[in-house]
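Students often ask why we bother predicting the structure of a whole assembly rather than each chain alone. The short answer is interfaces. A chain on its own may look different once its partners are present, and contacts between molecules only exist in the joint model. In this exercise we take two input lines together and write out one structure for the complete complex. Read the inputs first and try to guess which parts will touch.
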Amino acid sequence: MNDGGNLLQAKGLTKRFGGVVAVDNVDFAVRYGELRCLIGPNGAGKSTFFKMLSGQLKPTSGDVLLKGNSIVGLPTARIASLGVGIKTQVPSVFDGMTVRESVYLAAGRTLTSLLARKRTTETLEQMRISHLAKRLVGELAHGQRQIVELAMVVAPQPDLILLDEPAAGMTGDEVSHLANVIIDLARSGAVIVVEHDMKFIRRIAKVVTVFSQGKVLSEGPAADVLADQRVRDVYLGREAS
Amino acid sequence: MMRSALGYAIVTLSAIYALFYVPQHADLTTMINGSVYASYGVLALSLALIWGFAGILSFGQAAFFGIGGYAYAIAALNFDNTTLAAAVAIAAAAFSAALLGYFMFWGRISDVYLGVITLTVSLILSRFFNQTAGDQWTIGNAPLGGFNGIPSTPIITLPGDPSNPLPPEQIYVLAIATLVICYLLCRLLLATRFGAIVVAIRENETRAELLGYDSRYYKLGVFTVAGAMAGAAGVLFANCVFVSPNMFNLQTNGQLIIWIIIGGVGTLVGPVVGCFLTLMLSNYLGTVNHSGILAWLDPNLVMGVLLTMFVLIMRKGLLPLVISGFDRMASAIGRRPAKSMTANTAVDLSQ
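Now the answer. The structure tokens for the assembled complex follow.
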């Protein structure tokens, strides 16, 4: 492990869209086994930051290191094959395929067909969607599609999992199951979650990074950060004092 | 599944009928027509593969059809070995597809732009070969012949028997056999993991990339295979008609799209059926000795009306329509659950 156990590190990451600085010189690091939540009001730059980590956006300047190696400018498929699992904000799934086929395809990138089949069954059980295995993904409810996408992200057993608003559109039961799954996932690798839902954050987060106006406003243990007056002000829409 | 079994049975029976019954009983004209239809059928199959399963709408698939035809004619006139010429032709078509595909897919060109670029390439080739009249346009022993094409193309022979060109009856068998082999190759390709990933890319390219599959390689792979297939179709066409710039023209490309829309995008058999039915219909309407209303009908007009009907009313095409009809019938009888899956899924590759 390079960089003192950092699985992912962002150094001076900046993204400009014309005159707007969406992400401004952000330093960020996540270690193995860590579960990190990114929060912040709308327009704070967390999604842009997330997309730079996952390779969907190229930073204006700065670097992203995965296991010590720069991944800036690599195609998304390459970043994914280096062991990064990415779940987008809007469920990105294969509507015309069954749940099992989708997960099998995800597992099959790294495994032989026999192992991939076994891994598919495991993942479906872990996500509690075995009963949906033969259903077409396009027929499922929004929350179920979210879980199917998560199953596809998890199936190849990536080192780092990036989740953009995973709890959106889920029912209460689904959310609490999701929370357990995410906590579980962080044990084997590292998970970064971008989320709005504060209840959900409180359930899963140990360390929270708060974005505001393209910068890291605060970072630390969840309880401290969420009690921070500046963070509360930002969330209530007032200027940080 | 009963439906797949039935589908395979129908395909197998049709192949047996076309390969064994027709050569024994049909007349020469039918077999010559059959050879032309089968060569177009292979072309239709090549576009059905990339459009229906990889989501690549090439509006200029006939480019590789023409390249295959011309490469065969030029190589056969120069090498005195038609087997080698056929291999060269298929390789030339595959290489051209790979080259064009590389620039399109690495340039991240998709959708309508891809259609425009492929059509443009095909029309440029058509224009180019149209003006190749005259002695200066001769490659070795092969005069390109401008608008007239290359009528002197040597007919294919059996490997190792260069002095006996195949008679039309055997060209027919070769054409149908090639169609069947290409169909089986497509099936086989789609049953592999490569095929499943190609379908996944059609379903959602972003997700496929997020899973670590570089869509460019898969698209290039399937586009090259389809190019090779279109090249094989061109070789057949060169043997039952002759090569000319019309192989690349707008009408060929347009017809090709119509066959697939009528037969059903997302299926393999559908476009071949669409191709045969459409060609048979326009052949029938095109013959002069009709009386009454048939004498007044222009084949192009009928094709236009048909296409409009399919686009407006039966958007999925003939084969998916027949399949869903069968599903409804079967579920009414109660032999299978009523839940039917769409014809476009990767699950059900049986059509």
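Check your guess against this: The CA atoms of residues 117 and 145 of chain A lie 20 Å apart.
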